Amino acid sequence: MKITIIEGKDVTADDIAQAAHLDTLVYDELFCAPVDICLKWNSVNNRIYTMAKDEETGKIVAYVNLSPITDYYYEQIKSGTFLDIYLPAEAIVSYDMPSCMYNLYFSSIVIHPDYQNTGIFLPLYNAIVNKFIALGKSGIFIHRMVADAVSERGRQFCRLFGMNNVKNSEHNSTIYEVSLLPPRFKVSSRPTKELYDFYNTVYNENKDFMPETNVETEEKPHENNCGFDVFISYKHKDENNENTPDIAMAKDLYNALCARNVPVFFSELTLKELGTARYKQMIDSALDKAKILIVVCTNIDYVQKGWVNYEWDSFSNDILSDIKPDGKIFSYVDGINVHDLPRTLRQQQVFVKNENSLCSICDFIINALKFR
What we know:
Layout: E1 3-7, H1 13-26, H2 35-44, E2 49-54, E3 59-69, H3 71-78, E4 100-111, H4 121-137, E5 140-149, H5 152-161, E6 164-168, E7 174-179, H6 190-206, E8 230-233, H7 245-259, E9 264-265, H8 267-274, H9 279-289, E10 292-297, H10 300-303, H11 306-320, E11 328-333, H12 343-346, E12 350-352, H13 358-370
Parallel strand pairs: 4-5, 8-9, 8-10, 10-11, 11-12
Antiparallel strand pairs: 1-2, 2-3, 3-4, 5-7, 6-7
Helix pairs in contact: 4-6
């Protein structure tokens, strides 16, 4: 499979039509903008799309829409009450004013279902970062960026770029925002480091002339949330709202790892220590930072739905998308048949209580951290 990234004048009306069709494969109808609307947006600014084309088929298999928009519509989207399928062409701004700072709307990222988990995400992501750099070298800078993430892929992009979770929208999506000038995004690759250094230099040279930054900032209740090597995922309550046996197993593992000075995220204790009520934001942040995820399980149902499923599945997607190329997922189980675990989990290292001591498990994890 050979993928080519295209953008700007290389994107044709047919490419945009294919991208609109991709929406219908991934999004609910509520979030699918008609082709004619997409074409009107592109007619105002033909650099809003970045697309991945399969050279063998000539088909668009993934795309990102990043649209510069007016202040008014930026605030409307940020409010969480506005659906972008109703975004008029006059909301889009063209890149015709050098030395101007733009509001950017991260509208969508879509990957064809047949091409998900093929490694296509990372080159698409880097192409976006390189586009920011190219625009900046032409005197076109992004001041702030807002996103209305309706899919896990969109939330993945937002977390990777270091965007802050602002609120849940009225249409069951998540609003994210980040400042680029001053740069507040995450350095996660060589291109993002280049972008950060470039934007930081621009900001320091021009900060006396910059508009005030009205961007949501991430809650940082305590300095010890800056990094966790290991994330322990487990089911807290059962269907009767009673504590599961998984809690005791997870806590024993947590204590054993902490005794070996391994930084561990264990929600039962860690979130209390950090003193935050923004549960999902802290979970996502810890997943981003962790190098190893350990799934504790005493019941197969516990890993197939809810938070535990979300945690290991999104961590696995980060590994497959090369966001965490050295990431590892292990399982620690009791009272279940290992072969009943989801394929992603049973194909990795599985520790069985009473067969593997906590000491041997800790040794294995520490060695895995050393040789990442």
